[in-house]
Please model this.
Amino acid sequence: MARSSGHRNGAVLADLRHDRILFVLLSAALTVFGLLMIYSASSIMALTSSTSNHDPAYYLIRQLIFAMIGLVIAIVISLGDYHLWSRRLLWFIGVANIILLGLVLTPAAGADAYGATRWIAIGHIHLQPSEFAKAALILAGASIIEDYVMFQGEDMKMTVKKTVLLVALPLLLIILEPDKGTTLIIGMTIGIMLFVAGLPTRAVLLILGAVLLGIVFLAVKDEYSRRRILIMLDPWLDQYGDGYQLIQGLYAFGSGGLFGVGIGNSRQKYSYLPMAHNDFIFAVIGEELGLVGTLMVLAAFFALVYLGYKVASRATDLSGRLIAAGSVSSLALQLLLNVSGVLGLFPLSGKPIPFLSYGGSSIMSTLILVGLVVSVSRTTEREIMASESPLTVYEGSSGGLRLLQGGAGNQMRAERIGASRGFTRERPAAGISWNTTGPGRIDLGYGATERLRGR
Model:
């Protein structure tokens, strides 16, 4: 039976707004802290280089410009309904993603660096399409998984088409760059999204296992990747060659001790530690702020991910849950990949830390993911405010699946999606279920495990 309570709605809306404000403030704080650390880590190198016109703020200014561009894009995304990006504009975003990733592999636009072609060179600006591919693939994955789970794969031809063109093809182009780090992040993110969607744990683990086996195969098939694995195990095998950067990073952590040497006082940034402002900025943080500073950074990321998952848990449909969970999972996985590499616990991947590392494409893609989470939160708020409207239920021909949608916006979307999938039988429903923390899961009839059993 439907239950709509003004005070309960008010409590849920207050929690949503509170979590959203904290999420945005944490994102802003991490971005500002990243600008500070980029300036600290890059100022000496920029001051001594003619490429940067001997301007110690060269990299800071460039990062600030890209951050402002990313902020504008994030605001536009956050103000819109996330269904606009995951439904109406999905094919446009997917095709644009494929075109950009394809351009990377062309001699005319692609730019080589460190043995890989991952950038599009436009004058003095280099963009890395694989960074933006994360958001595009999260949106595509959310749409495909939602269709499959909620409609029991009734239109498998379209599901396969979307999977091949919007997920498999972009991943293939990223692998060809090659960019194994991004491939791993995206593969693990989609695996987490499948788990959030309620697919059987065994099936999700098999998919994640296949992703890891694929990455391992790519890692051992060429000498360069095998060398990185050996250096991870013992960087002193080549302390003045391939192991030099990792060793200097460890020296930075050791010099930092418990409380660090103070912001701006790093010694490793004086041309000892390569990529101090990019891949190895976490080592500079460890040197200048010590163990306490690094733990505080990790705690801030943990809080950000926690708030993102709270947004996901309150979303009024599966698509919203998957987009929010996928976005924050991608940020967390990239952080873990970088930090574990800098600490010598995982082969170096070249992946920057979200918010903190220098890189225009990195900061813009990070803020885009933040914008998607905020969009889910704002849309959820609007739909809960309209949730006193009757819900609409569509049943497929099998009769085993029910789709409940509440509120004026949800009802219109249910009618649109239901009609496009051949769901014609309509009957009134009770309403959104509630629990102590807010709106419960949308009632899909049988659980995902039961619906998918035997497939």
The longest strand covers residues 116-122. DSSP finds 15 helices and eight strands in the chain. Confidence is low (pLDDT under 50) at residues 389-455.
